[in-house]
Amino acid sequence: MLAVDQREALRDMMATARGTAIADADLTDFKVRAAQILTPFASAVLVDQEFGWDAIVDQGAIAPGCAAIAAADRFTPGNGEFVRTAEFDTTLDYARMKEQGAKALKLLVLWREDRDPQERIDEVRSFVETCRSLDLVSIIEPVSRGRWDGAPCDTEAGVLAAARELGGLGADVYKAEVPFKGRATDSEISEASRALTDSIDGPWVVLSSGVDAERFPEAVRIACTAGASGFLAGRAVWASVLGAASIEQELKDVSVARLQRLARVVDDAVSA
After folding, report:
1. How many Cα atoms are found within 13 Å in the side-chain-facing hemisphere of 161?
2. What are residue 233's DSSP bridge partners?
3. In what order do the strands lie in the sheet with 137-144?
4. First vs last Cα of the chain: how many Å apart?
5. Which molecular function terms from Gene Ontology are attached (predicted)?
6. Is 175 part of the annotated catalytic residue set?
7. What is the C-alpha separation between 55 and 67, in angstroms, rounded?
8. 82-132: per-residue pLDDT in tens?
9. Which residues of 65-96 are buried (b: 16+ CB within 10 A; e: fewer)?
10. Cα–Cα distance between 46 and 34 in angstroms, integer?
């Protein structure tokens, strides 16, 4: 599955790659072109309301056979983070988005060891119930972050702690970080992935943020061999093309091949 729901982080990546300021329209244009070119090779695509959803829907950019996933989270930056807080955006019209073709909703959950776990649990339960009431697939994306107060902490330990806390609350799919961001031995990643499998009550997939694009396919293979069901990723597919003179051509020449390779990795790993 493909992700194009990045917001201010995408703006920063594009600005760095191009050496110029990035307007909202630039973000939307990239998302539309990425959807047009890449969704023929994806089983689903994740899109945000803020910069992508309406344009992608209006232009019919999602290929037949590729399911649409709508991001249901609202991000607030702060303290040097593009996403200081993330919350379930109850102001969006999800019934309308379902009419427009959404098959699933996704919620980002920031896991910080010094924040109230009950707030996270209650929010996930509310999100899952909303999805059930609309007959939409629910996808949660717990991401381990540093403490709110800035004190030292082990964010890697938070990946598994988040799964133990939130992995049994009824979400249809759990979107997890690759253990150690892929920067560990294969056996260490495999062991940590098996711990995630044991902690999550249902299918889970990996995201690619923080993982080197060249390492990501192998990390996907390891995770799937240890119980994951695939990936829902963006950066590992398209981040390297953001500064290209012709992004459209680079998406065709580079990103399509990367997405196809990842799909083959999943097919081979889960059928082994």
Report:
1. 17
2. 2
3. 2-4, 44-47, 67-71, 102-111, 137-144, 173-177, 204-207, 230-231
4. 20
5. 6-deoxy-6-sulfofructose-1-phosphate aldolase activity
6. yes
7. 16
8. 999 999 999 999 999 999 999 999 999 999 999 999 999 999 999 999 999
9. ebbbbbbbbbbeeeeeeebeebbbbeebebee
10. 11
Lookup: tokens for 121: 């649990």
User: Residue 76: which of 104, 51, 110 has the closest Cα?
Assistant: 110
Which domains occur in the chain, in start order? 2-271 (3.20.20.70)
Contact predicate 174/135, CB 8 Å:
no
The catalytic residue among 31, 106, 175, 181 is 175
pTM over 0.85: yes
- Name the DSSP letter for residue 152: -
Q: Residue 173 — φ and ψ, nearest 5°?
A: -140, 140
| Tokens describing residue 119 | 């707030």
Which residues in 102-260 belong to E strands, given as ranges? 102-111, 137-144, 173-177, 204-207, 230-231
Look up residue 164 and give its amino acid: R
The span from the CA of 189 to the CA of 183, in Å, is: 9
